[in-house]
Amino acid sequence: MLFEIVVYSIEAALKAQEGGADRIELCDNPGEGGTTPSYGVIEVVRQHLSIDVYIMIRPRGGDFLYSSYEFHAMKRDISQCQRLSVDGVVFGILNADGTIDKKRCKELIDKARPLKVTCHRAFDMARDPFEALEDCIEVGFDRILTSGGQSRAIDGVDLIAELQKRAAGRIIIMPGSGVNEQTVGEIVNKAKVNEIHFSAMSYKEGGMDYRNEQIAGMGSEEGAEFKLRIADPEKIRKMRELVE
């Protein structure tokens, strides 16, 4: 079983490797569902990890219908990732009607080679998962990250199992979203998959002695300046024990 851990910081990436992850997906902005991290963060992570490093290519939060400016930014980000010697990139583009934007996705895939390419959960926002499956295969994605069209993979596990069956080895199906110690066994057993994606999320206290408690999230009301999000090595080890 291959474990991919989604991480949002340098420390989380190091912790994921410590816990035995096979690969990381490196992102920024967890509150937005993940966007492209900075080149500085990518470079430091690449230099200090021996496992595979995949990079989220997503210029903003929100939907997956991108302007020409945003599409150009995605191409530039892929070029930078190639220069930094990462192993793969992760993206997805939809048309307004809910279909996979095959033209733009193929252009990015061709540009990204020889890097590996994952279609992220834009797939779950497509109008028809089986149509989207065939489109992803046609344009050349190596894998699909999916929750089965639900908020959590455990709730979409029946669809994930059907996608795995229909894929028939033509593309990798990788469940993700809300995967934890309570759900990983059922997901793997029902869907018959060989890769799984999760965060193993934990928090640790920040190092500040002085704290201004009047401000949270620099005004966003979601932030927590004094808690740092990391990947928990023990959770990763426990998950591997559960599935193997």
UniProtKB/TrEMBL annotation:
Q: Which domain of life is it from?
A: Bacteria
| Pfam families named among the record's database cross-references | CutC (PF03932)
Record's subcellular location: Cytoplasm
The protein's predominant localisation is cytoplasm
Record keyword Cytoplasm present: yes
Which keywords fit this entry according to its UniProt record?
Cytoplasm
Any coiled-coil regions, as ranges: none
| Cited PANTHER family | COPPER HOMEOSTASIS PROTEIN CUTC, COPPER HOMEOSTASIS PROTEIN CUTC HOMOLOG
Q: Which HAMAP family match?
A: CutC (MF_00795)
Query: What family does the Swiss-Prot or TrEMBL record give for this protein?
Result: Belongs to the CutC family.
- Name this polypeptide is given: PF03932 family protein CutC
Native organism: Fulvivirga kasyanovii
Name of the coding gene: cutC
